[in-house]
Each structure stands twice: as structure tokens, then as C-alpha cells.
Write a structure and sequence with these properties.
- The protein is α/β, with parallel strands linked by helices.
- It contains 13 helices and eleven strands.
- The chain has a six-stranded parallel β-sheet with strand order 8-7-6-9-10-11, with helices on both faces.
- Helix 10 (245-252) links the parallel strand 9 and strand 10 (257-260).
- The chain is globular, with a radius of gyration of 21 Å.
- 40% of the residues are buried.
- Bound molecules: iron/sulfur cluster (SF4).
- Residues 171, 262-263, 283, 285-286, 288, 290, 293-295, 297-299 line the site of iron/sulfur cluster.
Length: 317
């Protein structure tokens, strides 16, 4: 969600040195992008270590800290850096630690505007960028690396990617057997293999999909870093997913992406890529934003495998 704001920041300061302080697992998302000159890994645990991490940055002489993170901790670390301009939203009791505490906008717009709006309200951007889509400019390089990885596994060049998990909770998950059915149907049509992606915690649901496939596939759950995952996803021909981080990555890579939505709001958190399509049922309780469904999960059970497969094939045309 922060990618459009970071791209806009680069547009505003074309020759600035932009360093991104990020937890190591997420750093790979930024590393290939033109807005990123430097990645600084941030992984302290105790409060003392966090303060020390900020203090260690004092000598770098940064001019401005922009907080694309809402927590009090982010403001505390920025304060410890003594960077003269510290800009972030006025929330979580952190206004006194910032030099520009920006009023939080009302909810309702797509979440990527939350970050763009911070730059706008802080006076850094005087207008919204013409193309605020969530986009990964490093897609071509990632695709080349991903094709090599698939070739090393003898998976061929035509791959259908599937992400059947959703870290937030089971309410967001479409049925594993339907992912398998729709992916198999599309893969058969394309002469493709299926690659299933997920975190280590999602291994079981990924294995369920793998077992139900009727075409050759490979389960990558728990076997990739974020950087490796981005490369493999970039090399897919098509992507089937729930509303999840992988959905945004596939869509940002410009892939034809079919996303099944139910419990969450596709208007505020939907994919923004040019070839992304949302499938959802108009059930009265959606979006509930719950982690677990308290009733019968009708928002998901009413979405057929055939509908997802046909939407994917139409999108490919
Ligand atoms: S309450 Fe409704 S929208 Fe929420 S998960 Fe259950 S069926 Fe879906």
C-alpha cells in the first residue's frame, strides 16, 4: 500500500538519497524499486534496542524522516535519530515526538491513499500522482530471475500461481479444493503447471490444494523468502488468490490476477493492477471484516470454481 507514496516521493525529490528502514522480511519488497537507494534492516526487540537503533542513525545526517508506519514505536525511533524533520500521522500518542504531526484522514478511500495523503497533507506533494496504482517497477528483472528458478525445478515456462492462504484469518479464505479445481482447469487449458505459494504457517492449506490438483504442481509453502517469492510470482502467467499480500504483489507485478473477496472490502483494499479482477458474492453480511466467519461462510461457498476459472481464461484473452 505504501508503494505509490514512495514512488511519488522519488518524483518529488529525484536526486535525494532515500533510505528505507524496514524489518528484514519485508525489505525485499523495496530493494529493486527505483525509489530505494538503501535498505536499512531494522530488527531490535526490546525498547532499549529500539532506542539504540534510532540513536545509531544520528551520524548519518538524514534531513527528513517520513513515517509510513502508525505505531508509537516508529515515532520513538525517529525521535532517537534526532533527524530534524520528523513527519507522520498524529495518532497513537506520538504527536510530541514528531515535528510535523499530520491529522489522520477519514477512512473510506482505498488504503494506498492513506500514505499518499500523508505526503500531501505534509506539503511534500501538491497534487496526487496521475497513476496511483500499486506497481512494482522491478517486475521485468524479477520475472527473469523467476523463470530461471522455475527452469531449475523443471517446471517449464507456463505457470499458474495460487495463493490459498490469508494471514488475517480463515474468513478471507476461499475453499482449497476450489482453488485446486479452478487452477487445474486453467492450467489444462494453457498446458501449464501450478505453483502454490504460502508461508510456513499456511503449509497445510497449500498441501490441501496440492493434493486436489489434477495437473502437475509444486507446493512452495514455507520455502521462499519474500524476494524469492516475488521472483517466482513475477514468472507466473496468471495468478489466483484470496485478498492477501500475495494478491497485491501479483497485481503490482502486472499479472492477470483473479482475487476472491468476501469478508473484506474490495473498495478500500482491492488490487489496483491493470489486469486484476475481483470476484465476490453480494451477501448481506459482507464485508464483515471478521477473522473467522460466525455463520456459514456463504460469501466464499457461493463462489464456484467454474466462475473463477472462466474469469481467469477471459482475462487471459
Ligand atoms: S459473516 Fe458474512 S461476510 Fe463475514 S465471513 Fe461470514 S459469510 Fe463472509
Amino acid at each position: 500500500m505504501s508503494l505509490p507514496a514512495l514512488r511519488a516521493l522519488r518524483g518529488r525529490y529525484p536526486s535525494a538519497h532515500i533510505a528505507i528502514l524496514a524489518k528484514p522480511w519485508v525489505g525485499d519488497l523495496y530493494g529493486r524499486e527505483p525509489f530505494c537507494d538503501e535498505l536499512i534492516a531494522y530488527s531490535p526487540k526490546s525498547l532499549g534496542e529500539k532506542w539504540a537503533a534510532g540513536k545509531a542513525l544520528r551520524a548519518r545526517g538524514f534531513d527528513m524522516a517520513i513515517l509510513l508506519q502508525n505505531a508509537f514505536e516508529a515515532a520513538l525511533v525517529a525521535y532517537a535519530t534526532r533527524i530534524p524533520e520528523r513527519i507522520g500521522y498524529a495518532r497513537d500518542g506520538r504527536s510530541l515526538l514528531l515535528t510535523k504531526a499530520v491529522p489522520v484522514p477519514k477512512p473510506g478511500a482505498h488504503e494506498r491513499f492513506y500514505y499518499l495523503e500523508l505526503l500531501h497533507r505534509a506539503g511534500i506533494l501538491d497534487h496526487m500522482p496521475e497513476s496511483p496504482a500499486i506497481r512494482l517497477d522491478g517486475a521485468a528483472a524479477a520475472r527473469a530471475a523467476g523463470l530461471e528458478r522455475f527452469a531449475a525445478l523443471e517446471m517449464g515456462e507456463v505457470i499458474v500461481g495460487v495463493s490459498p492462504g490469508a494471514a488475517y484469518g480463515s474468513a478471507k479464505r476461499w475453499l482449497p479444493e476450489r482453488f485446486a479445481e479452478s487452477a487445474s482447469r486453467v492450467a489444462l487449458d494453457l498446458g501449464a503447471r501450478v505453483a502454490i505459494f504460502g508461508s510456513a504457517a499456511e503449509r497445510d492449506v497449500c498441501e490441501e490444494v496440492a493434493r486436489a490438483l489434477t495437473v502437475p504442481g509444486h507446493n512452495f509453502a514455507g520455502q521462499t523468502s519474500l524476494g524469492e517469492y516475488i521472483e517466482l510470482a513475477a514468472a507466473c502467467r496468471l495468478y489466483l488468490t484470496n485478498d492477501s499480500g500475495p494478491m497485491h504483489i501479483a497485481s503490482a507485478l502486472g499479472l492477470p490476477t483473479v482475487a476472491v473477496f468476501g469478508a473484506t472490502n474490495h473498495v478500500t483494499t482491492g488490487p489496483t493492477g491493470p489486469l486484476a479482477r475481483v470476484i465476490r458474492e453480494n451477501v448481506e453480511c459482507s464485508p464483515c471484516l471478521k477473522r473467522e466467519c460466525p455463520i456459514d461462510h456463504r460469501c466464499m461457498t457461493r463462489v464456484s470454481a467454474e466462475r473463477v476459472a472462466l474469469t481467469a481464461l477471459e482475462l487471459l484473452k
